[in-house]
Every structure is written in structure tokens, then in C-alpha cells.
Amino acid sequence: MQRWQRGDAAAFERLYRRHRDPVFRYLLRGISDRERAAELFQEVWASVVKSRAAWEPRAKFTTWLYRLAHNRLVDEYRLARLPTEPLEPELEVAAPEHEQPEAAVSGGQRLRRVLRALQGLPSEQREAFLLKEEGGMSLEEIGEVTGVGRETVKSRLRYALAKLRQELTDVL
């Protein structure tokens, strides 16, 4: 980010390539609507561009970026635009040719079950889990993004993992 601030356009490209997929997945898992997640994704990156000159390295860039994404999700929750239906994956999984169709169907069913279980978590637990898994963040960084303490983050992760294990005993 500092290189980009100094005028290195390629630095922005590297930032974007490095973070685009995990940030999009984080938003998508948070609201279950691909089109709206894409809009929020654009808003997050527009904020990054708009904040270029004013950004200061008080925290890791990743923490700051996910804080922007978190704020967009919170706004979305407040507006109550969230769909009530469970998250359905729109991912096409390419399987090696040697796999039987039954294996691909079974894998797709497992993926849908995992995504439904994830969607069934309370939003605070789901968010902590996604920041850990999609963002690769530490407990402290998750706390910075969500505005809670380390112990609260640990608790949310513990409850999320327990519920996911309970829901997915036969899959895990």
C-alpha cells in the first residue's frame, strides 16, 4: 500500500490480485447473494482507492481491508437485505476424468451441506470463522476488524467450530 501511495501502480495490482478472492469469498459467505457480494466487493475496493492518500500503516493492510469489508457487511445487515434462503454454492468444481459421476455428486452435496451449516451460524460466529479461514487472520486481527477483544474472538470461534462439527459429523 505504501508503494502504491508513492505512485507505483503495479503495487496496487499486486494488492488486488493477492486479496481479491479471499475478500470476495468473505463477502459472499457473509450475505449469500453473489450479485450483492460483487457490489459490496466493488465498494470495498472503491474505498481502498479513495483512501489511498490518507491511509496510514497503523495496522496490517489485510486487517484494514477486512475492516472495510466487515463494515460493508454490517451496513448490509442493518439494511436487512439478507436473503432468508440458505446459501447455495454456484461454484463449478472440475473433477479429474478418472472420478466417477457419483463421486462428483457426493462432493457437491458435501459442499452444499458445509455451506448451509456455515450459513446457519450466528453472524458473529460466522464472521470470526470466515476471517480466520478466508482471511488467515490472527485472533488479535479479527478482534481489530470486528471491534471485540481477543477472548471474545476465541469464544466465537470455539462456538462456531463446535456447531459446525455437530452439524457435519458425518462429513468431517
Tag the structure with descriptive keywords.
0% strand; mainly alpha; single chain; globular; 172 residues
Verbal overview:
Residues 81-95 and 97-105 have low confidence and may be disordered. It contains eight helices and no strands. By secondary structure, the protein is an all-alpha fold. It starts with a helix and ends in a 5-residue tail after the last helix.
Number of DSSP strand runs: 0
Largest sheet: none
Rg over alpha carbons:
18 Å
End-to-end Cα distance, whole Å, is 39 Å
Globally, the shape reads globular
How much strand? under 5%
Question: Which spans of ≥5 residues are poorly predicted at pLDDT below 50?
Answer: 81-95, 97-105
Number of helices: 8
- Mean pLDDT rating: 81
Pairing-aware structural class of the strands and helices?
Answer: mainly alpha
Helix content: 55-70%
Order of helices and strands: HHHHHHHH
Write the layout of secondary structure elements.
Layout (H helix, E strand, L loop, with lengths): L1 H4 L3 H23 L2 H17 L10 H18 L22 H19 L3 H11 L5 H8 L3 H18 L5
How would you summarize this macromolecular structure in one to three sentences?
The protein contains eight helices and no strands.
